[in-house]
């Protein structure tokens, strides 16, 4: 019976995607190790280190069909090194003339690290695809609602008008930054690991770096200048990047959930019959995807400092840092896939209630326009006087339940300089969204430059 939610047939699809789980499954992991061994043999054959016929035989044998996972598990439990049982079984699957050349010049960490890098590459491709889908959805929302007025909120209270497109463009701006970071993250992380016992490639004599370069070409990975057995910053950066993406998705999920509150109801998750229904309260349409996004994002961000700990390694191979990576990296990718899986359809089908946004703007008796009124009065009354007038009028409106317009027009200083029509204009939410439209346009222009129409 599975103990992990990721392995549970009941829960797994709520927290990760099947494709990402397959990538980081034992089968995916073993195949990445076999891919390393086969590529190493071909690279060494190309450099004249081992016979070409041996490389061909090793490549042919480097399939999951050559492995007995249960027997591997037993040997792993005895020897304590994950690659030893795989090398034994791959060797046994090769003809005698090739068997002696399996794992030639490599060490366990070379296989583990390069295999992990191959999984990371495939995982980042999946994440990139889904992130691009999220960005495309944000582009559409920001463009559609560029000028849709909405109450801006600070400290969870009405502050001043914004547009919903402005809010979405803020999310889009961050998403574009994360997307722009990704090529650099890949360039640094997707490097082959091949150094042998202490990283010196000594068994290959003068052919060491030549073989490593050939291995990198075989696997389409970067050939590093030096072995990185204890240099883990690039792997940590991958998880930090995933944490940043998770932070954005968590922020979006939190905002949508807050705007779904009964007294607000300005946006809603896409409607699916029966989804979000309460077992006790038939009237409810609960957020379902957003709580998942928020929870996943919280867990994903918590993995970042754990991954940072793996950077502290002693000598030429650390004692206990690698097992931390084996736990953290797969989980981070699974969680990131799950957050994106929930976020993309929510954003693509978000139900935006523009009527309720306008209702909210007008629900506070004009108080949300206090800054606008103060700014309008200041050129004639002076800023200090305008601030005092509006503060007094706002307090009177809140105490009496009247509209800010009425309490303003009771002030002699206001009446001396402004007629009721001018006050009405200052109280119009649509006239006080500032540079929202221009900023939305700027973010959309950058999105277009990055390939998102």
UniProtKB/TrEMBL annotation:
<dbReference type="InterPro" id="IPR022761">
    <property type="entry name" value="Fumarate_lyase_N"/>
</dbReference>
<dbReference type="InterPro" id="IPR008948">
    <property type="entry name" value="L-Aspartase-like"/>
</dbReference>
<comment type="similarity">
    <text>Belongs to the class-II fumarase/aspartase family.</text>
</comment>
<dbReference type="Pfam" id="PF00206">
    <property type="entry name" value="Lyase_1"/>
</dbReference>
<keyword id="KW-0413">Isomerase</keyword>
<dbReference type="Pfam" id="PF10397">
    <property type="entry name" value="ADSL_C"/>
</dbReference>
<protein>
    <submittedName>
        <fullName>3-carboxy-cis,cis-muconate cycloisomerase</fullName>
    </submittedName>
</protein>
<dbReference type="InterPro" id="IPR000362">
    <property type="entry name" value="Fumarate_lyase_fam"/>
</dbReference>
<dbReference type="InterPro" id="IPR019468">
    <property type="entry name" value="AdenyloSucc_lyase_C"/>
</dbReference>
<dbReference type="GO" id="GO:0016853">
    <property type="term" value="F:isomerase activity"/>
</dbReference>
<feature type="domain" description="Adenylosuccinate lyase C-terminal">
    <location>
        <begin position="365"/>
        <end position="444"/>
    </location>
</feature>
């Amino acid at each position: 019976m599975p103990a992990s939610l990721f392995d549970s047939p009941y829960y797994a699809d709520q927290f990760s995607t099947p494709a990402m789980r397959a990538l980081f499954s034992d089968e995916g992991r073993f195949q990445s190790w076999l891919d390393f061994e086969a590529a190493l043999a071909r690279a060494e054959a190309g450099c004249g280190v081992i016979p070409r016929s041996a490389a061909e035989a090793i490549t042919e044998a480097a399939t999951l069909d050559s492995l007995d996972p249960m027997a591997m598990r037993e040997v792993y439990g005895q020897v304590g090194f994950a690659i030893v049982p795989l090398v034994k079984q791959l060797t046994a699957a090769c003809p005698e003339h090739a068997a002696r050349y399996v794992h030639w010049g490599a060490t366990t960490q070379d296989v583990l690290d390069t295999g992990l890098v191959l999984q990371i590459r495939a995982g980042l491709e999946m994440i990139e695809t889904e992130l691009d889908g999220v960005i495309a959805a944000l582009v559409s929302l920001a463009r559609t609602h560029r000028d849709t007025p909405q109450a801006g909120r600070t400290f969870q209270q009405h502050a001043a008008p914004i547009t919903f497109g402005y809010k979405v463009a803020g999310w889009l701006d961050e998403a574009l930054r994360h997307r722009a970071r990704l090529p650099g993250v890949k360039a640094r992380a997707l490097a082959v690991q091949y150094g042998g016992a202490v990283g010196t490639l000594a068994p290959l004599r003068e052919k060491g770096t030549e073989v490593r370069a050939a291995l990198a070409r075989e696997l389409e990975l970067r050939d590093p200048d030096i072995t990185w057995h204890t240099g883990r910053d690039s792997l940590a950066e991958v998880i930090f990047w995933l944490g940043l993406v998770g932070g954005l998705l968590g922020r979006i999920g939190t905002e949508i959930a807050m705007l779904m509150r009964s007294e607000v109801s300005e946006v809603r998750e896409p409607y699916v019959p029966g989804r979000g229904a309460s077992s006790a309260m038939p009237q409810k349409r609960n957020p379902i995807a957003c709580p998942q996004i928020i929870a996943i994002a919280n867990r994903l961000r918590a993995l970042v400092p754990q991954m940072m700990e793996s950077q502290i390694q002693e000598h030429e191979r650390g004692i206990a840092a690698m097992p931390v990576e084996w736990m953290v990296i797969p989980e981070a990718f699974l969680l990131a896939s799950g957050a994106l899986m929930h976020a993309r359809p929510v954003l693509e089908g978000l139900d935006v209630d523009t009527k309720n946004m306008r209702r909210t703007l007008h629900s506070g008796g004009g108080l949300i326009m206090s800054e606008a009124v103060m700014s309008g009065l200041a050129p004639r009354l002076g800023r200090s006087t305008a601030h005092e007038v509006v503060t007094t009028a706002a307090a009177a409106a809140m105490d009496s339940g009247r509209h800010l317009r009425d309490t303003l027009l009771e002030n002699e200083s206001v009446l001396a300089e402004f007629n009721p029509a001018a006050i009405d204009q200052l109280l119009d939410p649509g006239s006080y969204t500032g540079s929202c439209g221009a900023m939305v346009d700027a973010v959309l222009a950058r999105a277009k430059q990055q390939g998102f129409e």
